[in-house]
Amino acid sequence: MQLKKRCQPWWLLALFAYASAGCTAAYQGKVNDAEVHLVDYFQRSAGAPALIENMDALGIDHAYVMGLPVIKKWDLSQPKAPRFVYGDDAPVYYYSHTDELIAREVESLPKTQQSRLHPFLSGFNTTDLNAAEYLERELTFRPNFWQGIGEIITRHDHLTALTSGEKPRANHPALNKVYQLAAKHDLPVLLHANITSQRENEPLYLNELKEALQQHPDTRFLWAHAGTTSTLTRHLDMNFLYQTVTSLLSEHDNLYILASWSLIDVVMPQGTLDRRWVSLIEAYPERFMVGSDVVGTFGYQKTALKTWDPVLSALPKHIAQKVAYSNMLAVLPQAGKNVSH
């Protein structure tokens, strides 16, 4: 136990190594958070006031906040309530009330604090052809409140397996209607779509994403983790991902990369920065943003964002500032852009 306490996180060791090699100084600027789930998979939350308190402590000005579109069932076959979404084989099911929970949390804050949180709609069945109609009603009920749609969860390995009913995909006809609605209201779409399965070290599902991008050029897509999960990076090296992302960014001006969670395992395999990704960000400086992907509680927010410090430190200062801070604001609808920094 004592050894564990003395060990430094790998991202900190990598940052020290990078600085000692005589490279650019560590990034010292502010970081916004482009992915905060205010609730967990049981729809429980530490609350928006706790998030604001943590943001203040970390110097975070703005965050995208959203619910989770599914809730974990406590199945009769289980003698104890599950404590984690993958704790047993009971299913998850779609839970539209998550959006109301998020709205109540945000609206409970003073107006000055509300302006720092940018709420996204997520509580809908991604295979329901009526999903866009539901979202339209929510947008009408709270005009100028919602600033994005997502996280839309399509292919997501174990989570997909636990989801009851038809399995979602990025180019599902139900989502085509949602993407059209997003373009109509100038809302970015935060999309989780695995690029492959854990058995195939190739972009198995690439065409599903490409079809969505091609058919909806007026919709801004924020691709969560660039199609990775911890399950995928644990089983695959995913060396193909760099070229896949490079090609997608070149071909689709409406694609943005949300650098969060497991993507760091590909960008920094074994803690060593793959410089190709730095060059890619430099080539597309407005198309990357960072997020923590915290779920329900916020103590891990600092560590999750700090994992990207070696990447930010390797970038020119003005590009690092875009990736860390301003890009996530630039893709919001006009109502969300007019915020104090």
Automatic annotation (TrEMBL):
InterPro entries: Amidohydro-rel, Metal_Hydrolase. SUPFAM superfamilies: Metallo-dependent hydrolases. Residues 1-21 form the signal peptide. It comes from the Bacteria. Keywords: Signal. Residues 170-296 form the Amidohydrolase-related domain. The keyword Signal applies. The keyword Metal-binding does not apply. GO terms for molecular function: hydrolase activity. This is Amidohydrolase.
